[in-house]
Design goal:
Its main location: membrane. The protein has 2 domains: 1-131, no CATH class; 133-260, no CATH class. Strands 1-2 form a two-stranded antiparallel sheet. It is mostly helical and 260 residues long. It has helices at residues 2-21, 23-44, 52-65, 71-75, 81-98, 105-131, 134-158, 173-193, 200-225, 240-256, and strands at residues 162-164, 168-172. The longest helix is centred in the middle third of the chain and has 27 residues, at 105-131.
């Protein structure tokens, strides 16, 4: 627990100032976090990211992450973000032929879907910061921290019925509901003390649920590949995906609600 607390404090001290300033430093941070997340998924499946197909997948991920704010850079080359992504998809499938199926269609599909999974989540970290402002990023962080903490402590104290034992045997229905309640309390505080709209309280229930689904998705990955943590970059916490699995789901959905 002590190691988790120390790592959490240090990580927050590094992460929050960059989120506060936004701009290009936040773009670099999202690229870094997403690339590490992709590396963790590759490692789970025993794929080598330091390879030809790994490089193509990373470039595909970076194309997905390219912020809308900088689209004018691509416009000067007469290419769109979608066109870049199509090029890397075709090249990745071509790689299956070049390697004579040592890198298979299944591997290519896993690589592409992994990049989409990680890329979409972290892309909307930056887009939410640009469009919604700092307050929505802080709201999403505190809301998910409240969901996780509430689910853990309330589940430990009152949990009896298993939520999804095949995927995550320790999670309970009572803990899940407790996480949603704690998230709503955070939403109420943000409505009272910030300029976030009152409608966020109802939306918080949806976001808290999807945040827990994001957590379960990552648990399903780890159970399928028989690993305890996605990585070791965060002592006491695991990998980047272990810490951002819920937010990878929450940031796109928060953006789709068009609250700002």
């Amino acid at each position: 627990m002590k190691q988790r607390v120390i790592t959490g404090v240090v990580a927050a001290a590094l992460f929050l100032p960059i989120v506060y300033f936004g701009g290009f430093p936040l773009v670099l941070l999202t690229y870094f976090l997403a690339t590490i997340g992709l590396y963790e998924l590759f490692k789970m499946k025993n794929l080598n990211i330091f390879s030809g197909y790994g490089l193509l997948t990373v470039l595909f991920l970076w194309a997905l992450l390219f912020p809308a704010e900088y689209n004018h850079v691509l416009d000067s080359f007469y290419y769109s973000k979608i066109e870049l992504c199509i090029v890397f998809i075709l090249l990745l499938f071509t790689y299956t032929v070049i390697t004579k199926n040592r890198f298979t269609f299944e591997d290519a599909s896993f690589s592409l879907l992994s990049a989409v999974y990680v890329g979409i989540g972290f892309y909307f970290l930056f887009e939410t910061r640009v469009d919604g402002g700092l307050v929505y990023i802080l709201y999403s962080l505190f809301m998910i921290w409240a969901t996780d903490s509430g689910a853990y402590f309330i589940g430990k104290a009152l949990g009896k019925r298993k939520l999804w034992p095949e995927i995550s045997p320790n999670k309970t229905i009572e803990g899940s509901l407790g996480g949603v309640v704690c998230a709503v309390i955070v939403a109420i505080l943000f409505v009272l003390f910030t300029d976030i709209k009152g409608s966020i309280i109802g939306i918080t229930v949806v976001l808290s649920v999807f945040g827990q689904i994001g957590d379960l998705v990552e648990s399903a990955f780890k159970r399928h590949f028989n690993v305890k943590d996605s990585g070791k970059i965060l002592p006491g916490h695991g990998g980047i995906l272990d810490r951002f699995d819920s937010l990878i789901f929450v940031w796109p959905i928060l953006h789709l609600f068009h609250l700002w």
